[in-house]
Protein: 3'(2'),5'-bisphosphate nucleotidase
Organism: Mycoemilia scoparia
Amino acid sequence: MSGYLSRERKVAIEAVEQASKVCKLVFKQLVEGETLTKGDKSPVTFADFSAQAIVNSILEKHFPNDPIVGEEDSKDLQGESGEKLRSKVVELTNLVISPSLSEDQILKAIDRGQYEGGKSGRFWTLDPIDGTKGFLRGEQYAVCLALIEDGKVKLGVLGCPNLPHDINNEHNTGRGSIFVAVKGRGAFRRPLGGSDEDETPIKASSITDLTKTKFCESVESGHTSQSDSATIANKLGITLPPVRMDSQCKYGCIANGDADIYLRLRVSATYVEKIWDHAAGSILVAEAGGRVSDTNGDELDFSQGRRLEKNVGVVAANASIYDKVIEAVKAQVSS
Ligand SMILES: Nc1ncnc2c1ncn2[C@@H]1O[C@H](COP(=O)(O)O)[C@@H](OP(=O)(O)O)[C@H]1O
Ligand SMILES: [Mg+2]
Ligand SMILES: [Mg+2]
Ligand SMILES: [Mg+2]
């Protein structure tokens, strides 16, 4: 494929593919060792750090001048206290990446993610595992990578290793998708491990009857106000129960037409959303013909640094119902 951001698109897909591999490997070890329910959080930390090391070193190889706003840093891997974690991260990273990287190269790759972001120039933003809690539960998580230029998202790639190909028939279907969107070029889905020929265009739903819409939200009641969303759903006449799902897979479902509304309603007055939690997902929904804003109806502003300082919460919906949804959301959050 040639054209606008075609190299970036290809490299980003490759990076997300490789990072998804490490996540699946770690999860397999978790299950096989039966440490999933009794384990502390360290196994997921291996996956987070390794995935960030992999994506950042692939980006560095192809785009050495591009800075990266990544969720993780190497602090916990440093010194004597970080020794165990560090050696595990080095081992895992080198299972996926070749030629092998030294310990020092891996730590440096992770710390390429410390960029502050901002208004001008171009940078990447990475969430190596979005939905850590979902990952630990064996449910949904996503490897999320986006390219931002002068404060606007231009490319987004979401790797969703556990997402059923058909969410309405999840026990009889394959799992694992990559969602891709480039500004002005539409949104696509391909199977994880697939090729460009396997890509198909996706569209948000066009449903207008609110009583038949499906809304989704976080599994975690600490990340979104599930009581406010219930009130809003009720006011809108939505009858179906919420689809609760971790991570930016929710944006994938909206972009794909599998769900119609995504509500993320602030629970804590002090929490500010991070750019890596929304960059890839929001361009995906926009390019699939859906709409995304914060709960005041304002555009998500990715030019404010590492966090969405100007925004509160998130609302995504298909374009035909968005106006009604945002009206109900505004009324609820201002009451
Ligand atoms: N109080 C809070 N309100 C909203 N989001 C929060 C939050 N605390 C953590 N999060 C974010 O919620 C993300 C997961 O999204 P979801 O709840 O939709 O699954 C987390 O990403 P990580 O898992 O990458 O840390 C984290 O950044
Ligand atoms: Mg996240
Ligand atoms: Mg994360
Ligand atoms: Mg995290």
Observations:
- DSSP finds nine helices and twelve strands in the chain.
- The two ends are 50 Å apart (CA to CA).
- Residues 6-32 form the longest helix (27 residues).
